[in-house]
């Protein structure tokens, strides 16, 4: 999914939500997402800590020689495809073996996506990747809804984040602007204008939901 070549901060983000319709039917989960949500809710149902919400979200060995940063949007179908496919192989072969540290960097596309990114960053750090998995697994449900904010509120509720806390979260403009700043830095530094995009060791950019073999050629060059 590609943006126009304009500064990211010039986008007309709609931060204002007049009211939340939280009286919809209960959010229905299925498959692996349900199990992940149950674990998230039981282990992490505690007050939001947005003080650390904008800190880097890194998976893997912090001293790994290869650093891959992904600019992604939780509303992007190509990002969902990458995480359901290629990412699993990268995690098994590179992250879990200690050869790579993988960093999630926000690049929310479309208004509601920023609230999804805020929700993921508001849960405890050790629950972050699980929340990302859930939001991507349920991507069509909340992105295609006539009321995506309500759908996200239902996900938040099942994760142990109540109505008042979620309302506070999406009304926290400095927090949302901090997320936009992450995307803006990607645009300014690397010319990122599409998702997913990957920056390898601050030297090389790979764009799009490419196959594992294309990553492998680049990663092998840095691990030689």
Descriptive tags:
single chain; 224 residues; alpha+beta; Glutaredoxin; five-stranded mixed beta sheet; 5 strands
What portion of the residues fall into strands of 2 or more residues? 5-15%
CATH architecture: 3-Layer(aba) Sandwich
According to DSSP, the number of beta strands is 5
The name CATH uses for the topology is: Glutaredoxin
Strand-pairing-aware structural class: alpha+beta
Q: Number of helical segments?
A: 10
The tally of structural domains comes to 1
Average of per-residue pLDDT values: 83
Computed Rg: 17 Å
Give, in spatial order, the strands making up the sheet with the most strands: 1-3-2-4-5
Short description:
With 224 residues, the chain is an alpha+beta fold. It has a single domain (55-223), classed as Glutaredoxin (3-Layer(aba) Sandwich).
Describe what this molecule looks like in 3D.
- The protein is of the alpha+beta class and 224 residues long.
- It has one domain (55-223): 3-Layer(aba) Sandwich (Glutaredoxin), CATH 3.40.30.10.
- Helices cover 48% and strands 12% of the residues.
- The chain has helices spanning 31-44, 77-84, 86-95, 111-122, 128-137, 139-143, 148-158, 163-170, 173-190, 212-223; strands at 57-60, 66-72, 100-106, 197-200, 204-207.
- Strands 1-3-2-4-5 form a 5-stranded mixed β-sheet.
- α1 (31-44) packs antiparallel against α5 (128-137), α4 packs antiparallel against α5 and α4 packs across α9 (173-190).
- The two termini are 32 Å apart.
């Amino acid at each position: 999914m590609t943006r126009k070549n304009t500064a990211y901060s010039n986008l007309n983000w709609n931060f204002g939500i007049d009211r939340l319709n939280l009286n919809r039917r209960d959010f229905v989960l299925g498959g692996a997402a349900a199990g992940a949500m149950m674990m998230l809710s039981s282990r992490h149902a505690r007050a939001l800590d947005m003080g650390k919400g904008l800190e880097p979200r890194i998976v893997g060995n912090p001293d790994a020689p290869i650093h891959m940063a992904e600019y992604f949007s939780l509303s992007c179908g190509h990002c969902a495809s990458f995480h359901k496919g290629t990412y699993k192989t990268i995690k098994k072969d590179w992250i879990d073996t200690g050869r790579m540290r993988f960093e999630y960097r926000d690049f929310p596309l479309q208004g509601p996506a920023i609230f999804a990114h805020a929700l993921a960053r508001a849960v405890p750090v050790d629950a972050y990747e699980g929340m990302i998995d859930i939001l991507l697994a349920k991507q069509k449900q909340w992105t295609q809804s006539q009321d995506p904010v309500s759908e996200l509120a239902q996900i938040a509720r099942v994760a142990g984040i109540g109505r008042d806390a979620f309302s506070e979260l999406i009304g926290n403009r400095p927090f949302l602007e901090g997320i936009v700043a992450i995307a803006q830095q990607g645009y300014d530094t690397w010319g990122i204008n599409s998702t997913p995009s990957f920056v390898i060791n601050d030297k090389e950019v790979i764009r799009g939901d490419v196959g594992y073999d294309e990553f492998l050629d680049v990663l092998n060059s840095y691990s030689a």
